[in-house]
Fold each of these.
Amino acid sequence: MYLDIKYDVQAENVFVDNRIICIKLANNSEFRFPAENNKKLAKATDKQLSNVELICDGTGLHWEDLDEDLSISGILDGRFG
């Protein structure tokens, strides 16, 4: 039997602390991951890294300076780009 579970996860806030991406989710939980988990983020300056915004009603992250987008659900599944 194959069960495909899809879930919608929304972030309320995102910030960077010592090159750690910190995401506060709508359910009040938090998720953090090191920038080094993503090739583009690993090479970014601290200024570029901190220029992150929520997109698509909180279901994604966007770094304009780096032309990089990550989905919240992908991050939670361990896909960092």
Amino acid sequence: MNKNVTQTLPDEYYKWIEELQELDFVLVELTLYLDTHPDDTAAINQFNDFSYKRRVLQQKIEEKYGPLQQFGNSYSNAPWEWSKGPWPWQI
């Protein structure tokens, strides 16, 4: 993480976001691999494991800091939570 950027959130948030990005990278790579190797059950199992880890981490982040995505990709409690989390320029 670049410490020169003005930090407005706890280190934990940035650590979790970086972990989320790492999981997304793995999932993209596995998706590309599975596009050409659709019968590789080991890769499918890896994809499912990483997908589960990503959902768990996303849920943990959203419970503490608010939704990460909109348009139905993140759930919201009442009252509406979309404005609760940090804005993109705060990250």
Amino acid sequence: MKIALINPPSPYLANDSAYPPSGLMYLSASIEEMGHSAVIIDLTGGINWEDKLYEIEADLFGITCVTPNFNTVRKIAELLPHDRPIVIGGAHPTFLPEDTLNNIRCSAIVRGEGEIAIKNLLKDYEFGKLKKIYDGGLVNIDQIPKPARHLIDLHKYSPGGVKTTPIYTSRGCSFNCMFCSKVTGRNYRAMPINRIIEEVKEVIDLGFDYLLFGDDNIGIDDERLRHLLNELKPLGIKFRLNQDVRNISEETLSLAVSAGCTEISFGIESGSEMMLRLMNKKTSVKDNIKAIQLTKKHGISTKAYFVVNFPGEDETTVRETLDFAQIAKPDKFLVSAFAPLPGSPIFHNPQKYGITWMSKDWSDYYLVGKDGSFKPCFRTAELTFEKQIYLHDLLYNGLKQICLESPKHKPISLNLRENRYANI
């Protein structure tokens, strides 16, 4: 049996094809493990994807769906053969299964992590008894096969001319930030270091030059991270990772440099103590400044993620964030406009946070668009559409000026944060 897994385009991004679709590579490996054939159809990169759909032949189609891609996924499903089953997976069907089933032409949906669910689904399909909903839950990541990178064209994924691939050493995030939705749950699960090193060696053999460790927080276990860095050292490959500001030390940073780390990204979110409390970040402005400055001291480029327009934001808190950036001086930044994504605490209880209106058009729920643009998808008494645009532009333009001073400056990242728009 041949299964085609489709990665939809993201028209709101300036470059939606920077990195391979990691979630689909994991699913493909599980499909191949069953003896079936898998193909990954990546519709990103500005191609004429509607024409490409007519060329696909498969017994069953799977499409990954994050909230802002909902309308695009619906169109893709309509264009696929009507005599073949279509399965929708990803963040949106995980948190809003009925909305997906009722508004996209599909035979079934998969909620949560898909590696085990896809096997159960294919067994049911072979016996002609496909269910509407398959709950994948949280898988034992020690037992899933390594992602099927041989199915993708590595030359397509070369941001800046560097062949780059995501790699994951763990799943889950034990923190509970108010803006975040987690397909991979709060239960932190780590892969054995020897398995990770095997995968890195395979990636090098495939011709990739650079790794993006996509874990929500790879350093939640500092001893494990140091073990990983020691094992990476002799392999000679460069990489970047995401880190929590509370888990930064001189020892780990020195080791990271010697292992090949060129950049660390931090979820700073705000330079306002009040906003950090409202977001339930459990960090402080002091923590954030220390992490960035210590990382820069070791010659590692820093990238700061910020959220603007979270309920409670005003001009004072935005200017506090700019004051923070002037002190910390991150090399790069990304500004995400807050959106109450399905699965986040705010989406399911908007009144508690003063939200009086939310858009019913899922395509409005993107965090960052081309050139940093965005469209407000909610409103509070204080955060009108006009106010949100003003605050966003104030922060974005201010950060751009501050980061221009850095020799490693890059004003905006072109990829979305994995923990907010998870494909797994």
